Fold these 2 entries.
Entry 1:
Amino acid sequence: MKVIIIGAGRGSRLRPLTDDRPKCMLPVDGRPILQWILDAFGHYGLNDVVFVGGYRMASVQEYAPNLHFVLNDQWPHNNILASLFYAEEFMDEGFFCSYADTIITPALLAPFFDETSDITLSLDTSSNERYSQRPPQAHAPIEGTYIDGARVTQIDRVIGTSDAYGEFTGVTRFSAAGAQIFRDTYHNAKESYAGKPFQLSPSFETCYLIDMYREMLDADVPIGHAASRYSYLEIDTPEDYEIAQREWVHQLQK
């Protein structure tokens, strides 16, 4: 199964740390964020990796030349969902996708192997504890996810601690059937919403991955979840980066 890593954006909220490199190349505890992601998937033999790049992609190509690279040449004007679909040709047989700017460990991926849904989202259920350690100036939205039993029922962008079951970590697994549903939903939405607001975003072109998941939930597409704790970090700001280096990384379950 292929792994598609979405890493085209600049990571502007982390400036000046990202002025000379993409966010995924920031070192945390001695290795770039990208290497944390590659190591987590590699632990399970998932080494067939596609990287969708844009901002300073050459630095990633130099670091990890064995990855398959796809260029999102419109990265200043689009967003995560559009970036992912630059790699649509690799989706046929099912795939994992992951954000490129989050630290994950093998413990995050382990629950996927007990989950049989065609579309499964990774959820971090320790997000409230971690979020409470952020200083007020570092508060940023998380992708809070709500469930009913084995199914996801709602995803929202929320700020601060919340009653969400967990935070979407950016990692999703699609079976071949799930990938086809995802692709069909995307193309139907693109035809209907091009140039228009879509779900939580001001335009379809700049929407997020969770906007498409919200669209599928509205259509009663079943989406499962794979929950873990302390196996994921999102680093959005310089303050986050400092806390991650000093505290968060040492709390991770390997």
Note: The chain has eight helices and 13 strands.
Entry 2:
Amino acid sequence: MDTVYEIGICDDNHELCDQLMAMLTKIEEIEKVQFSINCWNDGKPLCDAFEKGYNPDLIFLDIEMEQRNGKEVSKYIREEYENYYTSIVFISGKAGYAVDVCRFEPFDYLVKPIEFERLVKVVLAFIRKYERDNKVFEYTNAWETVRILYKDISFFSSWNRKISITTLNSEAYEFNGKLSNIAKVAPHNFIFIAHSYMVNIDHIKCCRYDNVMMRNGDILQISRNYRKAVRDALMRQRWDA
């Protein structure tokens, strides 16, 4: 079955919502993809929708709305609702807001008026990220086969030929194997921070000179030989596949 991408648009400019929906419909036709699109003209009803179970794959979110603005909505999504999976693309008439919203981990940033070519690049990059995040890691032990979405994995660790998986919600799995073999098949957003630790860069909450804090609160040491590579990987991060 073809994937249907759930997309939300939240902007208090009704005309812009209509234009953005028309452009997304055109991208559907050109790229042979399927979108399910919902629109809101204020942040409050969008937050209400999240409380009722709405979990879109991608949101286009206006920063400068009058009642509940884009920064408040994104703060709710990331910090209160603890949703780190929905990709947020901020929309604004001022490019200067880009730095102001960095802490809400936006996927990208669009400046009004929105150019179709720029929108296409953003949407295709999102689709690549979605496909990457929804790949499955699988291992088999003596009694079962376990399948885990890569996007749910916080990090892999190894010790004495045992591999441990720690997920975003701190669940733990263990099996026999080599971390070097997993590195060959894992998406590129998994990086080594030490010989025995490979982390999901998307789930790094804070990076210091010699350690990283993951979203689940785990603090992992960065080996001396990996410090430059980790800094370079964080600098290159562009949220695409």
Note: The mean pLDDT is 90.
